[in-house]
Each structure stands twice: as C-alpha cells, then as structure tokens.
Design brief:
This is LSU ribosomal protein L21p. By secondary structure, this protein is mainly alpha-helical. The chain has a domain of 90 residues. It has eight helices and no strands. Helix 7 runs antiparallel to helix 8. The longest helix is centred in the N-terminal third of the chain and has 45 residues.
C-alpha cells in the first residue's frame, strides 16, 4: 500500500475529530442558551410594544385634553368690560349674568344653570330648541316664554356689543 495516500487521509481524519471536539468544547453546539436569549429578547420586545401603545394612548388623551383646554381658553379670549356694560345699561352688570338677556329672569337662569349653561358663550351656542327644552324642564309655568332671541342676545353680551344689545332689547317685547 502506498503511504503517500494514507498519510493525508489519516491527518484529515485526525483534524476533523479535533475540530469537532474543539467546537463542542468551546460551545458551538449549545442551542439552549440561544433559545433562552431569544426568549428574553422577545419578552423585552413585547414589553416595549406595550409601552409604545401606552405612550401613544397617553399622547392621544393629552392631545384631546389640550384641544379641550384650548377650546375653553378661547371661550375666555373676549374679556368682559364691566365699565362698558355699566355705561350702556346704567347699572352694574356681572359677567355671565344670564338675566341680562331680555326674557330671562332669576328662575329661568337657574334652569339654565341646572343644565350646565352658565355663561353667555354657552347660551349663545345653544339652539332655540335646546333653550325650549330647558324651559320645559321647569314645568308649565315656563312654557309661555319664547327663547327665540336668547342665543343671539347672549352672543352680543359675550362679545361686549352692549349698545347693539340694548338697542335690540328696546325693540323686543319680553324677549320675543
């Protein structure tokens, strides 16, 4: 037999066995550690996704809150000038006093307050049907009132158009 062929085969076999043993010894065949690491990473990824969703929800609620705050802030952008109102009406006028509207007295104002309509701006944004519903909530004694001009009058008061409001009220007959 030819030793020239046998020696490279023998060296190759020994190298293959040594390579296999060294690979096993140095951790090349440990799949359990990899699976454990993958599991931990997956858990962290899931936690991150949940955190992201929570932050997105918080962002949306913050946006809604800011929008609401801006809307209520814009409701107070027109400052109330008590002196101008007193100069026109000849009496002290309290801010958001609904009785300044022709046809609304203290009892009707109380009905509106019970329906969470407490400002001139809020009353100006009501429909006439909504005003009638508020009146109906007070019973039969309030059904004779006609709220047809109340939202417009409230808007004039909110905007500080006192002269225009007084002129219109002089033309009205009991708020009608």
């Amino acid at each position: 037999m030819n030793w020239c062929i046998l020696i490279p085969l023998l060296v190759g076999a020994i190298c293959a066995i040594l390579g296999y043993l060294l690979g096993k010894l140095l951790g090349g065949g440990n799949h359990e550690d990899c699976n454990e690491k993958i599991g931990k990473l997956q858990t962290k990824l899931d936690a991150c996704i949940l955190s992201k969703r929570s932050l997105e929800n918080d962002l949306e609620s913050t946006k809604a809150s800011l929008t609401s705050s801006l809307a209520s802030a814009s409701a107070t952008l027109i400052p109330f000038d008590a002196a101008a109102a007193k100069a026109v009406f000849g009496k002290k006028v309290k801010e958001n006093d609904l009785t300044i509207v022709e046809g609304i007295g203290p009892k009707i104002q109380e009905l509106f307050h019970n329906q969470d309509v407490k400002t001139w701006k809020a009353l100006s944004e009501c429909t006439v049907d909504k005003c009638q519903t508020v009146l109906n909530s007070g019973g039969d004694r309030f059904k004779m009132h006609n709220p047809g001009t109340w939202p417009e009058q409230a808007k004039m008061a909110y905007e500080g158009n006192w002269k225009q409001l007084l002129k219109w009220q002089d033309e009205l007959d009991g708020g009608k």
